[in-house]
Write a structure and sequence with these properties.
The complex is a heterotrimer of chains A (about 60), B (about 220) and C (about 250). In chain A, about 80% of the residues lie in helices and about 0% in strands. Chain A has about 60 residues and is mainly α. Chain C is built from seven helices and no strands. Chain C has a domain of about 160 residues. The chains are: A mainly alpha (about 60), B mainly alpha (about 220), C mainly alpha (about 250). The interface between A and C is large, with 35 and 40 residues.
């Protein structure tokens, strides 16, 4: 598709896409895992100090 | 301050022979090289300065871990923190003592290793001179790594990873100056002076940053 | 910790990261959408650009190589600014920003190296030359990895934050020296010929796609950085909640 250089152009785009996609997926998975942890902890009745203050102060 | 210097020296020469370990490591590195590249004396003479420098660099990195670890374990670090001398000065003195205890032996041994590498007398002299000017920089900048990892049980490898990229300029100018003394068209003085400048710069930057790191982590 | 500092710390916790989340949460989807559009436009522009008379189609690699290299450097600047924020103002978000940026910076540096290598093979005939620019970027990559290793190694968050900040700043001070020494070293050893081929003055036909791609990459960086900062804040929340739980268990 890109003449004689396709063997270099296609891999460079593939690698870039893979690394960026990996970064995005890792970030999203990380986000999900943290949210799940927080939900679990909250279900066990644990609250952050700051959140507890918000409740009691108001 | 002189008392501190003497104390540091005594400690360094006592504790399990840190200087000796570094020296043996240096010997091992230099010995391994010919097995890797072959016993061609001409080639060895050509790469000699570089090998001596890299060996000294690695051996210097090896001992850095001990710079503050010991003091932290026996609590004298806290004592130095509360003392009335500025912490950066204390770190500076510790670095100098550490260099005298572990760096100088390497430099003294370098001529012998230079013979192994079939180097000329001039070349050996140049390497010794550049090592003398350059290796303090490793200790000074290494102090930052040692200070930052002082809370870790096994920080040695991490120090090496953090410090090696920062040390590249020292290696470049050290080896370039050493070659400059032997090979004709290459200059000796400019790289040597830059090497001295880098060492002085690290002597200012390293202890300050290391003292800051220690002060912060002690809070 | 006495009562006063505890109170202050909790106020900081409340004020900054929470406010940050309140702003970041609605912004992130929009930023992500804009980034995707920008990336698509940039890609379209790149592939519709004419072939360079000298580099041929490999100019296509330049379009993704240059922005990656550019971001590799920008990311380190942002990390250094964050390090200053940690050390001078003790701002809790500064450390979050530093930590969140490190893996992204490492990834872009890696991309710059790989795509540069893939460009170098057809243009220079070799995967790697010890060219001043390449070598400096490689050193930058090692520094990034060292910082990531350090951030993983130290458990105590406050000490980790300051240690990271100090090493980042020392690295920042050193980068010009490294660059200079590599340049010097390179002019001594360079067999010449390679560097000159490097980058001819660019025609606008290539400049616009390149700038567009740089913009898209920058947007991508900002989005990822914000998302990573959000994760880091949540990670800290989990940590402090776990500690609360442990304390309550002890009390009970």
């Amino acid at each position: 598709m890109f003449g004689q250089y396709s063997a270099f152009i296609i891999p460079s785009y593939l690698v870039s896409a893979a690394v960026i996609a990996g970064l995005v997926i890792w970030t999203l998975l990380d986000h999900r895992a943290r949210l799940r942890e927080i939900r679990e902890l909250e279900q066990r009745g644990i609250r952050r100090r700051a959140a507890a203050r918000e409740k009691t102060d108001v | 301050m002189r008392a501190l210097f003497v104390r540091e020296l005594r400690l360094a020469s006592r504790v399990g022979g840190g200087a000796l370990t570094g020296l043996l490591f240096y010997l091992a590195v230099v010995t391994v090289i010919p097995f890797g590249v072959g016993p061609d004396l001409k080639l060895l003479a050509r790469i000699g300065p570089a090998v001596l420098w890299i060996g000294a660099l690695l051996a210097g990195l090896l001992g850095l871990e001990r710079l503050f670890q010991q003091d932290r374990e026996d609590g004298s670090l806290a004592l130095l923190l509360t003392g009335h001398h500025p912490l950066a000065l204390v770190v500076m003195v510790k670095c100098l003592a550490h260099w005298v205890a572990t760096g100088l032996p390497l430099i003294v041994a370098a001529p012998v290793f230079g013979l192994f590498m079939n180097m000329s007398a001039e070349g050996i002299g140049a390497v010794v001179l550049t090592l003398l000017a350059g290796t303090p920089a490793i200790t000074f900048i290494g102090a930052v790594g040692a200070a930052v990892t002082v809370t870790l049980a096994r920080g040695g490898l991490l120090i090496a990873i953090l410090i090696l990229p920062l040390i590249i300029p020292v290696l470049i100018f050290g080896v370039t100056a050493a070659y400059g003394a032997v090979e004709d068209p290459a200059p000796f003085l400019p790289p040597f002076l830059i090497l001295c400048a880098i060492t002085l710069f690290f002597a200012a930057l390293g202890p300050l940053a290391a003292a800051f790191a220690i002060g912060q982590s002690a809070e | 910790m006495n009562d006063l500092t505890a109170k202050r710390a909790s106020l900081w916790d409340l004020a900054n990261p929470t406010r940050f989340l309140a702003i970041a949460n609605p912004v992130i989807p929009w930023l992500a959408a804009i980034t995707i559009v920008a990336l698509l436009v940039a890609l379209w522009m790149c592939f519709s650009a004419p072939e360079d008379y000298q580099q041929g189609a490999t100019v296509l690699i330049m379009f993704i190589h240059v922005p990656a290299a550019w971001l590799a450097m920008m990311c380190y600047s942002i990390m250094s600014a964050s390090a200053l924020g940690t050390l001078v103002w003790r701002h809790p978000l500064a450390d979050v920003s530093l930590r969140a940026a490190a893996p992204i910076g490492a990834a872009f540096t890696f991309l710059a190296l790989v795509t540069g290598s893939l460009w170098g093979k057809p243009m220079w005939g070799t995967w790697w030359v010890w060219d001043a620019r390449l070598t400096s970027v490689l050193v930058l990559f090692i520094i990034y990895m060292g910082l990531i290793a350090l951030s993983k190694a130290i458990e105590e968050p406050a000490i980790a934050a300051r240690s990271l900040a100090i090493v980042t700043l020392v690295g920042f001070v050193n980068i010009p020296i490294i660059k200079f020494s590599v340049d010097w070293w390179n002019t001594l050893h360079q067999p010449a010929s390679v560097s000159r081929l490097g980058r001819p003055a660019m025609d606008t036909a290539f400049l616009y796609p390149l700038l567009m791609m740089a913009l898209a990459y920058t947007l991508l960086f900002v989005t990822l950085h914000l998302m990573n900062m959000r994760n880091e804040i949540l990670r800290r929340r989990v940590r402090s909640m776990r500690m609360m739980a442990a304390r309550e268990n002890e009390a009970a």
